Amino acid sequence: MAKHSTVLLLLVAFFSVRADSRLVVSENGRFFYDEGRPVVLFGGGLWTVIPDVTVDVEEHNSWLERWGANANRATLFAFFNSVADGEGLAPWERTGPGTANDGGLKFDLGKPGERFWQRVHDYLQSCERHGIYTLLQIFDEPFTEAGKERWKNNPFNPENHVNPIPGLPGGKGSGEEAFYDPENRELMAIQDALVRRLLDETAIRHGNAIYEIGNEINMDSMTPKAESWQKHWIRFFKAYEEEKGVSLLLSNDTRKDLFVAAEGGFDVVNHHGFLRCPIEGSQHRELAQCIFKGIEDDFGRFHRPILNSRPCSDPDRTNYRDIVSEETGRRLYWSYFVGGGHIIGFRTTDESLMGGEAAERIIQNLRRFIDSTRYWEMEPRADLVEGDALCLSCPGKQYVLYFPSGGKATVDLKQPKVIFNLRWYNPRAGVFQEPERVSGEETVTFAAPDENDWALLLEAANSN
Q1: Using 50, 70 and 90 to split pLDDT, how confident is the model at 7?
Q2: Closest to 306 in 3D by CA, of 354, 357, 253, 258
Q3: How far apart are alpha carbons 378 and 390 in whole angstroms?
């Protein structure tokens, strides 16, 4: 891999995660802190990095660190059995007797797979060394759906385990409705044991994870017990916090109505399931404005950090319906930052970790800009700007303007007698232009250098 630039080394030093790190929500509710250091999350690596032991976690995390990424969305064990040569791990031992649908021994869901749990520990320990925070997905909704590699090979399918669990269907249809049933005591005892072991391995030994209880639970279907199943986990996490004296960050990516039904139990809003902005085919300016407004509306309602974990945030992906180009992807990432949000994307098992560098270039150049701001003191301020730009601001001190497609914007600086330093930033090249100064006006109109996307950083000359 290429050597780190001086800028990236500084970024790594600033955003590194110590072994005693503990990610918490900032006072303004938008960002995070880790032992007093502000954190904004942008990144995305391999989704199946934990179960796929053909992946070197050090190489994986070094790759993310090289580009200035500090986050990854990782599933606990989804599609472990699609890894080549049987090198996928699951949380339980395959003891038999009998053969599962994928040709291996049946699982004993009461016997933890210690090789898997060591892998979890090794991954998060490596993340600490490389400054990576993890959106850790526990259960996977597509894994319970019908499909060639889904419910048919799920360890909870009764054809794949030796445990007496009533109510779960066999075959290759769907196990979704039966799986999300908090009234099935035998089933929930095993699910509870899995989550407790996960928290023991991660929340106690590490502090660099946001827990995502499930992937798309009830987003693509109408599972009737999804709401009560979700609330079970909120109670479970709260009880664990009280028992162990730790603070946990819990997220989800369900439909908005399910999130609203349990909003008091979630610390982080995941836009995976309910950002209503058409990604595919959108004009850049309209997409950026839609994202900015979506974040504004949801933060106003929930007052929690907002992140996007949709796979469309990976411009190198080739097998997804709302795949974006690097040009669109850049607007996606920048609009989330200026809107006061975060993106934790991911790559799928169908492509190599380093199959492209579009997302990494976006993150690298965005991170360079982020490091030049005091974002943790700012908030989105649409009311301060008229025209073609989005605005993140601490009024009178610092303003970030993002022009998704060039154009002009008039800004209310609130300080007519204050001198401001002005620097245009090229998001495509990751460089600032020569600084300028502006002063003496309460409102100032700025015109982007051309029709591409541009960022503008305004700072009061006497601002610390």
Answers
A1: very low
A2: 253
A3: 13
Q: What are phi and psi of 64, to 5 degrees?
A: -65, -45
- Comparing C-alpha atoms, which of 454, 68, 128, 232 is closest to residue 446? 454
Residue 38 CA to residue 23 CA, distance in Å, equals: 10
Give the span between the Cα atoms of 182 and 172, in whole angstroms.
23
- E strands present in 31-161: 32-34, 37-39, 42-46, 71-75, 92-99, 105-112, 133-140
Residue 92, class by beta-carbon neighbours within 10 Å (0-12 exposed, 13-18 middle, 19+ buried)?
buried
Q: For the purposes of burial, counting CB atoms within 10 Å of the CB of 360, is it exposed (0-12), middle (13-18) or buried (19 or more)?
A: buried
Distance CA 206, CA 23 (A): 10
Q: Is 384 exposed, middle or buried (0-12, 13-18, 19+ CB in 10 A)?
A: buried
Helix (H, G, I), strand (E, B) or coil at 106: strand
The region of weakest confidence among 65-79, 123-137, 291-305, 406-420 is 406-420
Q: Decide which of 441 and 112 is more confident.
A: 112
In angstroms, what CA-CA distances link 306 with 3, 169, 340? 33, 36, 8
The residue with tokens 């730790």 is: 246
Helix count and strand count (H, E) for the chain: 10, 23
**Which residue segments constitute the domains of the chain, with CATH numbers given?**
6-371 (3.20.20.80), 380-460 (2.60.40.1180)
d(C-alpha 182, C-alpha 80), whole Å? 25
Q: Which two tokens stand for residue 51?
A: 């179960």
| CA 336/CA 317 separation, integer angstroms | 20
- How many CA atoms are closer than 13 Å to the CA of 410, on its beta-carbon side? 4
**β-strands 32-34, 37-39: how paired?**
antiparallel
Interatomic CA distance for residues 403 and 331, integer angstroms:
9
Label the pairing between strands 408-412 and 105-112.
Answer: unpaired
- Region at 270 (left for phi over 0; alpha for psi -120 to 50; beta for the rest): beta
How many other C-beta atoms are found inside a 10 Å radius of the C-beta of residue 13?
9
Q: Is 259 helix (H, G, I), strand (E, B) or coil?
A: helix
258-311 pLDDT, tens digit each: 888 888 899 999 998 788 887 777 799 999 999 999 999 999 999 999 999 876
Question: Containing H/E element for 361?
Answer: helix 358-370
- What single-letter amino acid sits at 377? E
Contacts (Cβ under 8 Å, ≥6 apart) of 436: 421, 422, 423
Which burial class, exposed, middle or buried, applies to 450 when counting CB atoms under 10 A from its CB (0-12, 13-18, 19+)? Answer: exposed
